[in-house]
Fold:
Amino acid sequence: MSEPTRHESRTARAIATLKQQAIETPSWAYGNSGTRFKVFAQPGVPRTAREKVDDAAKVQEFTGVAPVVALHIPWDKQDGIDGYRDLATYAGERGVRLGTVNANVFQDDAYKLGSVTNPDPAVRRKALDHLMECVEIMGATGSRDLKLWFSDGTNYPGQDDISARQGRLEEALHAVYEALDEEQRLILEYKLFEPAFYATDVPDWGTSYAHCLKLGDRAKVCVDTGHHAPGTNIEFIVAFLLREGKLGAFDFNSRFYADDDLMAGAADPFQLFRIMHEVQGGGGLEADSGIAFMLDQCHNIEQKIPAVIRSVMNVQEATAKALLVDREALKAAQQSGDVLAANAVLMDAYNTDVRPLLATVRTEMGLAPDPVAAYHASGWQQWIEAERVGGEQAGWGA
Structure:
């Protein structure tokens, strides 16, 4: 029998990696949420955290690579610590597990001038108490990661002391980091603007990186693919953070202008491929990389579960293409200075139709080759629309 070709070897390795991929879905993606001006309610939307888990379990059932669901506190608030333990047990019974705990210090009226960077010590204490509550919840759910995003910032020059706010932020992050156990991590997200129109306190990856560097090895940066200025080279950020051991998580989503709630890969699938190419090159797809690949999306006009399934598939396709890059040929072209040949290697992989490959992966995993079609054929959408009548739908109420 002849030796497998380089292409055959890459394909075999790609199939093995794709079978073990894990994409975390967000509980809030299953509820009513969306743009700032209006949230359009849909029939069948979950009313409780358990019903969100049920929907997440359906995504896992049809994709096979979405075994984790992230929580948002207080959107998924339970009755005491035992309630979170019960929710974790419930998730396990449904074939998924609870993952990242996301804190919320941006919706309370007290946070109008900021949370942990607020000039009022009482407000800062309130915010820190909530973050400590989230740490306690992590212990009950078995979660590894606490993800923090702060809407803190200022709208006008002179409104507050920029440096002093950084000091308050550092103090709060240090207190939270010290409260984590040795297996838990702090993941710090950043956002260019919104709702702070003059200066956001964590506006970019460099600010997040600087704070995480001070905190220690278990503090990592979260790269949200929709939270950058137009034209930002996100794959450079990914490559740098990977090289420094500071890439902790992704929030996958898309945006055309300034928001970030569209499906991953919808606005610029080539960008998602370039990102996953750097992830692959930096060892980020290895089982021990520690990177959490999470969706962070809201679905306002499209059905929730099919949109999450499609987003998972988009990440899978970008990953598959990155795995098919002929890295030997790429390295040879790079070292010889052949600019066009190097670019052509990347483009050959990107232009590959990986849908047949992913259909093979799913079939070998005992799944339907088309997860969206399988979901629609399952009758789950019709069942939840008939069953989830009455009560209060989950959502964040914009």
The two ends are 63 Å apart (CA to CA). The longest strand covers residues 97-102.
